[in-house]
């Protein structure tokens, strides 16, 4: 019996939830810390133009991670369902083809992205001041794309196989090494933005090496076997992972949309202010993804094992946790916005004031974000994909784009900061009014996958 089976079949939902949540939450926030640390070192060691340049390049991380999560979450969901059913051969086959597929896709993307780094930089919003820095950053990231993909996908499978503590350990190692390398490469070697990019990818590779320890455990369910390329399995992996792909892709769209809007309404000052908020947002956004990542193995396993009441209990405790986290983030944003801005070495008063104003408005969105990710993950984890895709499209694409177009016309830069809270809030209110009752009163039926 694998680690995941032993834990989920013998423990209460609450105990299992926090065993998954705490290391996953710490791990996700440390993963975001890798990006935030880049911003702190770049802002303090190179300057605000370089900081804005790295922010322009951030969507590339979202693209690479979104594709890795499409495969990893899709494969991980199938893996947990198969484990819940006791079908270990299917579970191993799912893991093998998921990692092989990740390798192929990331290699192709890395080659194309490296060759087209400059036009991609312009597409993502680089201007004459930021272009050279952005290209330098992107070339390094694309060169290491397979490593980024393996790290993201394997961490999901390690967590699904009952080792969230090891997944957290890998991210701790990555975050600590990233701090050391950023200081060394930026302040000692004077490698500027190239050094920040190298620090991130080398630290990511170190985290990947930590995850491989899982294969040495005697009760580990993850095993590589000879892959059997089954079209239906590949389609199902893509189908189940597609909501996460959209969520991560939506993050890239969010950055591009905000960059374009702020560049138009506030110029380089707006871009620099948003770079500060976006680094903070990355940290907090991944915390909510952490809640979703925690409940996915549980719900998928319970679904495969036909333990339907445990699924409802998992959703309830996740809702409480998501709301508490949102309140905590909002309180930090309202009580100490100036301190948050100061972390990034912003000295220009215009940038500082615009960022402070943005934080106090933008952070309202965190009250609603947890609900949206919980229900997106719930539907995805039981292989009911259409509602999951619908939630992702509305909150991250349709409503956000509409808000970025309409609200600035009415309220100027204030409207730009309001766009995300408006999109998240409308989605969450709809889910609580119309979807929650159906989830809690659901009449479960067998669904083939």
UniProtKB/TrEMBL annotation:
Membrane topology: Multi-pass membrane protein
Listed InterPro entries: MATE_fam (IPR002528), MATE_MepA-like (IPR045070), MATE_MepA_subfamily (IPR051327), MdtK-like (IPR048279)
Segments forming a coiled coil: none
GO molecular function: antiporter activity; xenobiotic transmembrane transporter activity
GO cellular component: plasma membrane
Transmembrane portions of the chain: 20-41, 61-82, 94-117, 137-158, 170-189, 195-216, 237-260, 280-305, 317-336, 356-378, 390-410, 416-435
Subcellular location: Cell membrane
Sorted UniProt keywords: Antibiotic resistance, Cell membrane, Membrane, Transmembrane, Transmembrane helix, Transport
Keyword Transport among UniProt keywords: yes
GO process annotations (BP): response to antibiotic
CDD domains attached to this UniProt entry: MATE_MepA_like
Keyword Transit peptide listed: no
Family: Belongs to the multi antimicrobial extrusion (MATE) (TC 2.A.66.1) family. MepA subfamily.
Protein name: Multidrug export protein MepA
């Amino acid at each position: 019996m694998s680690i995941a089976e032993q834990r989920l079949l013998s423990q209460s939902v609450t105990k299992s939830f926090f065993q998954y949540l705490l290391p996953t939450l710490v791990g996700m926030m440390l993963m975001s810390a890798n990006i935030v640390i880049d911003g702190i070192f770049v802002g303090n060691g190179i300057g605000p133009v370089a900081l804005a340049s790295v922010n322009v390049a951030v969507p590339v991380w979202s693209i690479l991670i979104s594709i890795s999560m499409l495969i990893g979450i899709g494969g991980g969901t199938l893996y947990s369902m198969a484990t819940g059913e006791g079908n270990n051969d299917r579970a191993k086959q799912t893991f093998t083809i998921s990692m092989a597929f990740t390798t192929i896709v990331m290699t192709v993307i890395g080659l194309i992205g490296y060759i087209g780094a400059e036009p991609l930089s312009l597409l993502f919003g680089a201007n004459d001041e930021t272009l050279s820095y952005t290209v330098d950053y992107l070339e390094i990231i694309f060169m290491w794309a397979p490593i980024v993909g393996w790290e993201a996908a394997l961490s999901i499978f390690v967590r699904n196989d009952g080792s969230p503590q090891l997944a957290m350990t890998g991210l701790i190692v990555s975050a600590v090494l990233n701090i050391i390398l950023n200081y060394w490469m930026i302040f000692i070697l004077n490698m500027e933005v190239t050094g920040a990019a190298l620090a991130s990818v080398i630290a990511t590779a170190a985290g990947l090496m930590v995850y491989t320890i899982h294969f040495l455990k005697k009760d580990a369910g993850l095993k590589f076997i000879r892959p059997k390329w089954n079209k239906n399995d590949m389609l199902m992996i893509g189908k189940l992972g597609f909501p996460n792909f959209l969520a991560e892709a939506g993050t890239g769209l969010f950055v591009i949309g905000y960059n374009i809007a702020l560049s138009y309404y506030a110029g380089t000052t707006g871009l620099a202010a948003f770079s500060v908020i976006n680094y903070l947002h990355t940290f907090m956004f991944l915390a909510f993804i952490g809640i979703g990542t925690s409940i996915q193995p549980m719900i998928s396993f319970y679904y495969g094992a036909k333990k339907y009441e445990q699924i409802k209990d998992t959703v309830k405790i996740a809702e409480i946790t998501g709301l508490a986290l949102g309140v905590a983030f909002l309180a930090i944003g309202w009580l100490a916005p100036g301190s948050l801005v100061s972390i990034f070495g912003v000295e220009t008063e215009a940038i500082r004031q615009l960022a402070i104003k943005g934080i106090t408005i933008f952070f309202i969105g965190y009250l609603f974000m947890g609900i949206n990710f919980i229900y997106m993950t719930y539907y995805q984890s039981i292989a009911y994909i259409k509602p999951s895709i619908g939630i992702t499209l509305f909150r991250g694409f349709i409503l956000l784009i509409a808000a970025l177009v309409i609200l600035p016309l009415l309220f100027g830069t204030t409207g730009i900061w309001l766009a995300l809270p408006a999109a998240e809030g409308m989605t969450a209110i709809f889910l609580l009014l119309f979807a929650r009752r159906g989830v809690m009163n659901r009449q479960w039926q067998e669904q083939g996958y």
